[in-house]
Each structure stands twice: as C-alpha cells, then as structure tokens.
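Your task:
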Amino acid sequence: MTQHVDYLVLGLGGMGSSALYHLSKRGLNVLGIEQFGAAHDRGSSHGETRIIRKAYFEHPNYIPLLQRAYELWHDLEQTTGKTLFNQCGLMVAGPSDGAVIRGVHLAEELYGVEVESVSPADAVERFPGFRIPDGFEVTHEPEAGFLHVEQCVQTHLECAQAQGATVYLNEQTLGVKVSERSVEVKTDRQKITASSLIVTTGAWSSGCLSELQLPLEVVRKVLFWNPVREPVYNLDAGRGSFFFDMPEGEFYGLPSLEGASVKLAEHTGGETVSDPADVDRSLYENDVHRVSRFVEAVMPALDPQPMRHTVCMYTGTPDGHFIVDQHPANQRVVYGAGFSGHGFKFASVMGEILADLATTGRTALPIEFLSAQRFNQ
C-alpha cells in the first residue's frame, strides 16, 4: 500500500524538526520521518548545548540569516513558554591577524554586531580561569550565548504535531526516487509518494540524494565534559561561552551549567566516517590528547581529563559553508546539507527557508551563497 502526502520531511534533527514545524504552522498536510527517536544522539543535533552568535567569522553573509534565527528562537520561546536560549555572552581569543578575530571585526563593521574589545589586563579580571596566550586579541559578544539543543528539537517536533503534523519515528528510509513529476520514498515499513519533499538527513544526505553527488565529507567529533577544580566557569557566576583560535586548532566550550564540569571540544580536525550508521562512540586516547593540551595551556582551573564524552558527526563541504538548494530534476524537492559543524544555531531559520522553498519555490532570505551551483563553476 502506498501513502500519499503533500509535504514530506526526511530527517527530524535540528533542521528537519524546524522545517516540519514551519510547514505545519502554515496549516499544510505534512509528514516527518526519522530513522531514530526524537531528539536522538546518533547524528549531529545532540550534546545538551550549542553556541549561538551573531559576529559570524565564517562569512558575513550568514548574519542576516542569524538575525532572523534569533527572532524565530525568541518566537518559539514566547509561543511555548520554554527557555531554549541563554544569552550568556561569548569570549573569542586569537591572533589579531587570524581569520577568526578578523571575521569577528568584519561582522561588527558590516552589520553593527555588538562586539567589545577586551584588553589583556581586563581579560584577566573578566574571564577568570583562562590563561590568554601572549599576543592574543580578546573580544566579547554580549548577544551570544547557547541553545539547549535537544529541547529545541523536541519543542519543534511537539509544536509541529500539535499543529497537525504526523511524525513517524524509528523508521528507516531505504530509497528516494525523484522524477520531474513525482517523488517516491521507500522506507522499511512502507512506500510514500509526496507532492513536495524536504531532505534534512545530515550525515546520511549523500546516500539519500546520491544522484546529486554532493561534495560532502562526514567526520567523527568528540564532545567532552571535564571536571572543574575551581568554580570560575559557572553560568550562575556570570560566565559565558568561549572560542580560542589556537596555533594547533580551534577549540570552544560553554559555561558550567551544574557547577561540576565544563563542556568543550575541538572544532577543527576529526576522523573521516565512511558509514554514519557505524561510528565508533568509544573514546580513543588520541581523542583526549589535543583537548587536554588545550586545557593545560589555557584553562588551569579545569581538569585536563574528561569525566564523560559523547560522539557526534560533522557533515562538511569543501568550503565549510552549507548547501541549501532545490533538486535540479524537480524543484519541489529541496534539501539542506553540509552544515559543517556550525549549523545548529540556524535551525530555526533554516526550517523557515526550507518550508518557503518547498511551498513557493523561493525565499525572501538571502541564501544565494549557499547554492550547490557554486561547486559546478
């Protein structure tokens, strides 16, 4: 038996749960399918928290999207009464001539993002527990903070269902067939045809859209929670998130939420994953080494050995930017992929953009720089 729906969303992590929410908010007949459970820990949208910021050093073109993302996260909080975003601020440290610090100041210049320059002497007082390397410049972005990641996904799903969306969990997609006039999806339980399809399957995107030959690489990433030795990183003491552009890589972390540990990780690097369904989630000695060296050099009030960890995946593109586009064979098939480890903060606005593309074929938001066509030039 074949089921037909008007709008089908494959993959209900950060982006897919938001797309489902925005489609259902418009009163549309929409179905979402997720191969795991709700707000699961098998992909890229887990680990308790994610940093959100406006001074986007990756590229200033993201900033209009972030401005809308902030509005939508606020709207979701107002609608549900839940606290999803904590505006605790973000300290960024790195060489003045490095891409990170230069990118922060470019965001400030082009879009008026509020960025404070912090002198080395003031940094010692404002950010206790950190040893700023010699010659580093320090900035602080007061509008930055973090999102409660699993709660964001769960809230989008709950609201979508309350608005009439159907959700199938623990159902695996076996194949997607796209033609000029139709879309057919086969799962391990059924066959579904759809008038319009949104694909947000994260590390599984290349398999779902194999005919597009998207230039995606999946890497294994480890998140750590390290014990605190002194209460200098606590959120309740006014501490915020941090990002360091070190000579050996980029490292980030969040304030201690419970007073016992700090979550941190290396943003750069990562081991290539050949099969996202078969990722080793145990802890390697090499996983710990680089982050421990960072802790020893920069965070003396933190134990360099983690108390726990989790493993997620980055699905990256050659230039580190997202791919958001329509299928060349059928414009009613749209997809978001390659969020490259910095995408979750955009989930609220990406859901709106994908819903726009699926329903009208266009969006008012500036996403031209994210088109897949850039890889064919």
